[in-house]
Structures are given as C-alpha cells and as structure tokens.
Amino acid sequence: MSNLKYCQGPDCHSYTTQDRLKGIKGSKTFQTRRRSSLNYGEFCDTRCQYDWLSKYATQAVDHFGRLKEVKHLTEQNAWVKDYNYTSGWGSDKNYIYLNKITNEQRPLTEAQYDDTNYTLNER
Ligand SMILES: [Zn+2]
Question: Is the full-model pTM beyond 0.70?
C-alpha cells in the first residue's frame, strides 16, 4: 500500500465517483484517487490534469521559463522520418526523410529510421 501514488488534481476528491468513496459505513468520504501507476503522469485522468493546469500553469511557466519570442521551425530542422509502402504484394516499406518545408525527400535505410540519434536536423 505504501507505493501508491496520489493523483495531484486539486479537486480529485470532489468528484463523486464510487471508486473515490472509501471508509467504513457511517464515516465514508470521497477521497483523492491513488494508484500504483497513474494513467496521466501525476494525474488519474484528464480532468484532474486540466484542473491542475488551470490552477498552476502560470506559476509553472514563470518557474521554468516563459517563452518570450516566436520559435521557428526552419528548413534546417524540418526533417521528419517517414515511410510509405512499396506497391505490389508484400508490405516492404520505403523509408524516407521528408523536409516539411521544402518537401524534399531523401532515402533512408531502415537502420537509420530506427536510430533515434540519426538525424538530418541541425541541433
Ligand atoms: Zn484525480
């Protein structure tokens, strides 16, 4: 029981679902959900995630750093790995690197496709 994680939703306990109703007869309470693993990181569901964001997003952004200028996805870092299927029978894949700005395609090997460190993007 000690390894359970508590949902961090500030209002989790206020949602009156049967699984939150705990305790012995006569002293039951709706309680914050706790699970061995939570489906949404620190939260039991998207409602609790949204509640937390609504309450703390500004503080969190101020703490971790506020974006103060437009970011750009340029030709130099717009490459994405993709594949299409070869025509005919079988399901051989054609691996490609596709530039989302220029639409240029370059061939890619399956090993390069699978290699998470392999990129044409400038870092
Ligand atoms: Zn919750």
Answer: no
The alpha carbon of 7 and the centre of ligand 1 are apart by a number of angstroms equal to: 5
Question: Can you tell me the mean pLDDT for 24-34?
Answer: 96
Centre of ligand 1 to C-alpha 66, Å, is 27
CA-based nearest residue to 45, from 22, 12, 89: 12
- Measured CA to CA in angstroms, residue 58 lies from 2, 53, 54, 90 at distances of 32, 8, 8, 52
- What is the pLDDT at residue 81? 95
DSSP code per residue over the chain: -TTPEEP--TTGGGS--GGGEESSTTS-EE---EESS-TBTTBSSHHHHHHHHHHHHHHHHHHH----S-----GGG-EEEEEEEPSSSS--EEEEEEETTT--EEE--HHHHH-TT--SS--
For residue 103 the two structure tokens come to 């639409």
CA distance 14 to 12: 5
From the CA of 49, how far away is ligand 1's center (Å)? 8
